[in-house]
Amino acid sequence: MQRLTFQAIIQTLQQFWQQQGCVVLQPLDMEVGAGTFHPQTFLKAIGPEPWSCVYVQPCRRPTDGRYGENPNRVQHYYQLQVILKPAPVNIQELYLNSLRALGIDPLLHDIRFVEDNWASPTLGAWGLGWEVWQDGMEVSQFTYFQQAGGLDCVPVTGELTYGLERLAMYLQGANNLFDIVWSEGPLGTITYGDIFLQNEQEMSRYNFECADIAGLFQQFNHYESEGRRLLELNLVLPTYEMAIKASHTFNLLDARHAISVAERQNYILRLRTLISEIAKRYYEEREKKGFPLLKQCEEGEQHDL
Amino acid sequence: MIYEDFLLEIGCEELPTRAQPVLTNALKQDFEQALAELALGFDEIHPYSTPRRLAILIKRLQTETLPNGDGKDRIRGPFISVAEDAQGVPTAAGLGFARSCGVDYAQLSRETTSKGDRLYYIPLRPAQKTAELLPALCEKIIAALPIAKRMRWGEGDISFVRPVHWIVLMLGHEVIPAQILGRNSDRLTYGHRFHHPQAIRLEHPKEYESVLKKAHVIANADERRHLIKEALEKIAAMVQGVPGIDVDLLNEVTAIVEWPVPLLCQFDPHFLTVPHEALILAMQQHQKAFCIQDKQQQLLPYFITVSNINSGDPNEVIRGNERVMNARLADAKFFFDTDRKHSLAFMAKRLSEIIFYAGLGSLQDKAERIATLAKTIALFLGLNGEEAHRAGLLCKADLVSDMVGEFPELQGIMGGYYAAAHNHETPAVAKAIAEHYQPRFAKDTLPISPLGAVVAIADKIDTVVGIFGVGEIPKGDKDPFALRRLALGVLKIIVEKQWPLNLEQLLQNAASFYGDKLKSTNLVPQVFDFMMERFKNHFIEEGVSAEIFMAVLAKHPVEPYDFSLRLRAVQAFCQLPQSEALAAANKRVSRILEKEANILTEHKVQEKLLLEPAEKALWQALEEKKKVVLPLYETHEYTKALSALALLQPIIDDFFDSTMVMVEDRALRENRLALLQQLYDLFSVVADLSCL
Known about the structure:
The complex is a heterodimer.
Chain A: H1 6-19, E1 23-24, H2 39-42, E2 51-60, E3 76-85, H3 91-101, E4 111-115, E5 118-120, E6 125-134, E7 137-148, E8 151-152, E9 158-163, H4 164-172, E10 181-185, E11 188-191, H5 192-210, H6 213-232, H7 236-255, H8 261-288, H9 292-304
Chain B: E1 3-12, H1 19-37, E2 44-50, E3 53-62, E4 75-79, H2 80-83, H3 92-101, E5 109-113, E6 116-121, H4 130-143, E7 151-152, E8 159-160, E9 164-171, E10 174-175, E11 179-180, E12 183-186, E13 188-190, E14 199-201, H5 208-214, H6 221-238, E15 242-243, H7 247-254, E16 261-266, H8 276-287, E17 290-293, E18 299-307, H9 314-339, H10 344-348, H11 363-380, H12 385-394, H13 402-406, H14 413-420, H15 427-435, H16 450-469, H17 483-497, H18 503-513, H19 523-541, H20 546-553, H21 560-575, H22 579-596, H23 613-634, H24 638-646, H25 649-658, H26 666-683
Parallel strand pairs in B: 9-12
Antiparallel strand pairs in B: 1-3, 1-9, 2-3, 4-6, 5-6, 7-8, 9-10, 11-12, 13-14, 15-17, 16-18, 17-18
């Protein structure tokens, strides 16, 4: 089997999902802990409008930093996110076909759907589903959204999240994330480590040791109050951006051990309250506009006929 | 009567592991009950479950209900005396009942009751085909399944544990047409997701198990569990080891595969420097893998993963699993190394940030209270008070460590390791920290080291008193702080260590360390009673009768160990031939004394007033027994004391047979009552035997 480079994996998956009718999107240009934060997932899961898309999202989880010394954990990594709303009946089969497109033979490898019920207290969202294991390695998350921002998801959105680094390690037989081959070409073999090792070392130090705690607390408060102000002005998406910024600030404070266990809940609750209001307001705004994607989709179906 | 096999299979996306046995048991029970209600006979019900299916196979189910059911549902009418006149002609009441049943009067039946003959009618019910009843029955049973978290999928509003893909519903060779969970019933099932993805046509329910086996599915969960267990033992033996089989893990793994293929894997031996408890948890919880230990229970650098495939190249599966395991263990090592950069005492400083419970201060406050109480206990017992204090202060510190953050089950255990690291703390302190959460569950071992036991007692009592003090009293199955387990833990430790600790005093001390934080005014007696209730349940489970427990409790012994000695003594006493007669005598004495309590002024027996030989004999016997028994009481040798007293039985019986207590002469009467009081007092030191 020819070794798929990191960039070829992304291309293969994007192409596969494009063929399934997904809109190919670009990453959100903000710091997020998971692809779910992208408004094209979180907000699109709200309300009746159909939607399907695929995009790569860089993720930051400051507490997962290991100074580049752990073979599996990093504070910055990539997810490939697929959203299918409503989730089609054969969604599991589609997912397995995407693995086959990558050259994974499920009769050779042990592929399993292991129960993992996802919940994001911050987003007021939860869903039921699985981690997908390949030979013991979790390479994807598979979730049927049941609630987002405290609102019931009707219809249900199916979310597939590929952990690209783990998938690549698996496909390339790499024992260490930094050994992943990103590309091969005139520059020779470029590895994940060539691109990101220094970043991991320095960002881990920043996250764990150097981030300015007092400044971060100020920022958190600012983003929250700014969010409240913008919501008054009926600016739903800018408010959501403030919530995203606040969330990352919280994660940095967490990495600095600056938030005690007792306070943690309180901070999460503050974010959750703001995001629930955003979700409600987003639904109302879409409703006012007559749920445009719903109409467009009906027209699309007629077009098909 | 005709009988046919019945099959219901619900084909799903991968089901949660814990739900599988719960749901199949519920299906089995609900079918049993529903079929009994319809008076439908059957041989047996076989439940099946795999990650992708729940199924019920009913062997030889009756295909038709009996006409008129089982004859039990009679409509009862008026008595004949009302329904007919003297000549036997139906009255208006009799005809009215016939009309209400929709039949002629002559078609009614009669039954004899204790109040006379009476009319009744069995409504005519034609036999019904079981096949016609089953769709509604299945729907009702499935709707009532105990599903912890239902989910919706796609566009529909149907909800179940996981999305449903197919329904098999067959009676004999026939499909029973129905729509269940949004799917039309059929005879098509599916095999293993990868080995046999195509549909399989079932001709008859009886072939269900064998057909699936050919399609790489072992539908019977018990069979899968057994196969896995056997394979684990065989594989571990290949490296001269024994598999660590955690029952919960085995059940989980059983529910995660349709075609179990256990594989031997290795991990990098240099991880063996990390505490093995952490390695084992990482293997079990994160990778659902089984560890292997050698004959000395030392961890070996191997593990067993149970795959769900007959892989074309098992080495690929093994390599993949080994890579993940090494990364997981590297993480555990990272936590261990990071934690050890600081001393436990340093970590303890961060406890001030963590609230123990709203209104009860921080964990640091708790640690200080534990330390003070532990020191008091240790000094009383002649142990090292300073070490007890130190262990108390540090016992909660590992809660802020990275390792416990990742594996909460390791609380205490990691604290023990960190205390011992760099020789920061004495071995006794480290051991006490490691042991102080014990017993963590019903059958868990108790702390072995004296200091561990002291800190365990102090910690648990502090929690019970504090939580009670803010009014969070356990009710029914609501006991979020596990106060019942904590309370019993304290009692078991004290009894096992044979320590003469005064529980009332301990509770008093613990409450006083909270200062003015606790509200309840009646707190100590309340907690004491709560703990005695736990004590009682514990001993009843051990086979002690409730009566014996209550007889001892009536004396309100405040030392749990002493309490247990009294229980044993009374238990032994009850085995003696004299015990019944003595218990009766004690009851009699107790009744007399109770009645005369107010009249009795003189407690001293005056020898000159003893007239009858029997009372003289009793007096003498009591005086002699006192000399023997009182010292035995002093040394808590209750069994010996009660055996000695038991010998008084004939003398006491003689006394009651020949002596009148309630005589006219006041002086005589009071003297006899005083004699009885002495008798009663002597007997009632250990327990109130009149309770027996």
